[in-house]
Amino acid sequence: MGAAGVHFEEFRVGDRYRTLGRTVAEYEILSFVTLTGFTEPLFMDLEYIQRESVFKTRVAPGVLTFAIAEGLTIQTGILHGTGLALLSYDVRVLAPVLAGDTIHVEIEVTDKRETKKADRGVVTFRHRVVNQRGEAVMEATIARMVKRAAA
């Protein structure tokens, strides 16, 4: 995608996009849990993690995975200058994202509807976040308000 995003009229149900991949680093997990106050031993205490966790390494909180997936989505350019608002999201965490995992997002347009305002519409997307092994780690249904081309 170029600098201009996709307008409401240009999205078609069934359209698919794929983001670039991104590796989640241990320091990013630590920074996020410190910033947000997720002070659970599962995120903060490496000795506890190695002794008690089934993962034996740092795991990214689901909301961090969602935030990274949103960033990857923005980087596609499909919403540059056309995305007006995130209206709703329904997220299912399917598997952990561990420090060192690389994720990407597979995006599908699943619905679109006009609104009472002529300058915008609502587009619904299904996001599937996938790790480097091809395993889905998160699925989300996301509704966004998107600018119309005529606006």
Provide an overview of this structure.
The protein has helices spanning about 25-35, 40-45, 45-50, 60-75; strands spanning about 15-20, 20-25, 85-95, 100-115, 120-130, 135-145. The chain has about 150 residues and is of the alpha+beta class. The chain has a single domain, classed as Roll (Thiol Ester Dehydrase, Chain A). Strands 1, 2, 3, 4, 5 and 6 form a six-stranded antiparallel beta sheet that branches. Strand 4 and strand 5 form a beta hairpin. The radius of gyration is 17 Å and the shape is elongated. The model has no long low-confidence stretch (mean pLDDT about 95).
Topology of this structure?
Elements: E1 16-18, E2 22-23, H1 26-36, H2 41-44, H3 46-52, H4 62-75, E3 83-93, E4 102-114, E5 120-130, E6 136-147
